[in-house]
Design brief:
single chain; alpha+beta
Length: about 150
């Protein structure tokens, strides 16, 4: 993982929506979507603001004072999982936001961050005609290798 550069979402192939206590993230390239809750949602919300891994770790550790080390150590593993799924990445061109980040709400007991991955709509998400256009855009279909439109 990169040093203390900012983190961000891998747009435009990744989109997300925050719903109360859950973040739903869709990878339009793979057709997979993800549900992030509790600490996973907290980390993702901070990561997509441009926060550096160290700042995210400290913010999460501050939210769980009795379990600071477990919270701090879970961030790196979770960020690596987001990177592996193509959802987020260290972005050196983004200056990291300040190290003192605040997470809203009261925290219950610490639970390690994890996400649920869904592949059941992969075929539908990948049928999106936007995936079948060339650089000139819609409604012109991209050509196959043989020179014929898809």
């Amino acid at each position: 993982m990169a040093g203390e550069c900012g983190f961000g979402v891998n747009a435009p192939q990744v989109v997300f929506e925050v719903f109360d206590e859950e973040v739903v993230v869709v990878n339009l390239e793979s057709g997979h979507y993800f549900s992030l809750r509790e600490t996973a949602a907290d980390i993702f919300r901070l990561a997509v603001t441009g926060a550096a891994p160290g700042a995210i770790s400290e913010a999460l550790a501050g939210r769980f004072p009795k379990e600071r080390e477990a919270a701090r150590n879970s961030v790196r593993t979770f960020l690596e999982a987001l990177i592996a799924e193509g959802l987020s990445s260290a972005q050196p061109e983004i200056a990291a936001v300040p190290a003192r980040l605040e997470l809203p709400g009261e925290a219950g007991p610490f639970t390690p961050p994890r996400f649920e991955k869904f592949t059941d709509m992969q075929d539908l998400l990948l049928l999106d005609p936007i995936h079948d256009v060339d650089e000139t855009g819609w409604p012109r279909a991209a050509e196959k290798a043989g020179g014929t439109p898809k």
